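INFO  loader      accepted 1 record
INFO  loader      residues=208
INFO  predictor   begin
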Amino acid sequence: MAREKNIDVILDAAHSWGQVDFQIADLGVDFIGFNLHKWIGAPVGIGFLYIRKGRLDAIDRHYGDGSFDPNDIRTRVHTGTANFATILTLPLALKLHETIGTPAKAARLRYLRDRWVAKARALPNIEVLTPDEPGLAAGITSFRVRNKGSREDNNALVVALRDRHKVLTVRRDGVAKGQCIRVSPALYTTEEELDRFVAALAVETSMG
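INFO  predictor   done
INFO  writer      dumping C-alpha cells
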C-alpha cells in the first residue's frame, strides 16, 4: 500500500531475525534495521542496517561522511569510534546461530512461549495479549493484569517478580488499553524456570 503511494517504509525488525525463518527479500522493504543481541546472541549494542541496492541515494550521507566512497553503505551508518570488542564477538555468535539454525530456535522459543502462556491463561486475573495462532506469535508475549493498566501497577509487578521471585520481565506501553508486561524466554530458559514464573505470577496477582 505504501509503494502504491510512493511512500518509503523503514522496518524495525529487531525481534525477528534469528527466531523467525525468513529471507530479507521476503519482506519487500528497502530499509530495515536488525538487532544482533536479541536472538543471534551477540552482546548488547550491536545490530545492522539493510538498504536495498539501488536505494542508497535515498539516504543522505551521515554528516557528509567522506571516510568511504559515496556508494558505500558505511557512509550512511557512520558510528564514530566503534566498540571493536563487541564486533569481534560477532563471528562466533553467527557460527552458533548457524549451528542451531533458525527453525530449531523458532521451535524452541515457541514451545517455551506456549508452555507458560497456557498456564497463565488459566489464571483468573491475567489477560494474555498476544494471540496463539501460528504466524501471529513467536517467542515473545505480553500480558496485563485485568483492571491494572497503569504504569505504576505494571512497574510494581515487574519489581515484585524480579526482587521476590528472581524473574526478569519488562513493562511496555500498551497501544489501546494501558501498560502491559512483556515476557521473552531465551533459548536456555528451562521449563522449570517458566513454571516458577507462572507460580510467581499467581501469587503476585492474587495479592490484590
